[in-house]
STAS domain-containing protein
Amino acid sequence: MVKAGSQVVSKLFAAHEPEILAEWSQRLKDDGALHSGRIRETELNSQCKSFLAALRLALDSGATNTDEAAFGGVRDLLTEISGSRAEQGFSPRETALFVFSLKQPLFDVFQRHSKENAAASLETNWAIGLLLDRLGLFVVEAYQRSRESLIVRQQQEISELSTPVIKLWTGILALPLIGTLDSERTQVVMENLLESIVTQSAEIAIIDITGVPTVDTLTAQHLLKTIAAARLMGADCIISGIRPQIAQTMVHLGVELSVVSKATLADAFRLALARQGRTVTKVRNAALGSPSAE
């Protein structure tokens, strides 16, 4: 039954594709596809035209199952459209409507032009509905995969941006940490720090945890891993930014960092300079006759 209905649908496409395209595009616009401004009318029309062409080719081959090779072009196109709409911020409902909104135009065009009996019409309508339902589910799944991939990529980018390694002085690096440390982020922190130690030939790395909300046993373990890795690369570490509340928590938990720590980044930087035989002093500005810090 489905195969016979699909053959009728194929003939329907061949004879009335422009009419179907026009009604489908208008229905998408009426449903608000362009209201958000995230997609242009020309892009929407191009997607509709490409989808109908790919669908017609698949149906012309006699295929009825959307998992068949003949529907490969349709699946690839829908995957691309779903991915672009996930990045553009469309909701799953808005993305799925791209396919589901084609049902009514196909039904209407078929009713206007079909000369088949009631039984044959029912068979064709069933074939149309079943085909578009499967493709609609495929779109939702493709959208979900694209969205999950986008979220993972954004999390990685945010993690990298939130762990910058700053050169404070020749041979001295600072790694300001903001937010909670977990295993995945610790790996990013470690990689960024070690790479910077090598490229900058750094001797001292200051790890500032002022922006870390709390330090528990797990966070301390992550810090120790980072410190150990830096030491293996030949750089000493200094921890700065331990607030009174964090210090008390670490004492209660029995956490031992086994590394020099300072209350502020400025104190840690002063210590790092001292280890290099440098110091910060005031100099007198000859032109103004007053001291200034340098």
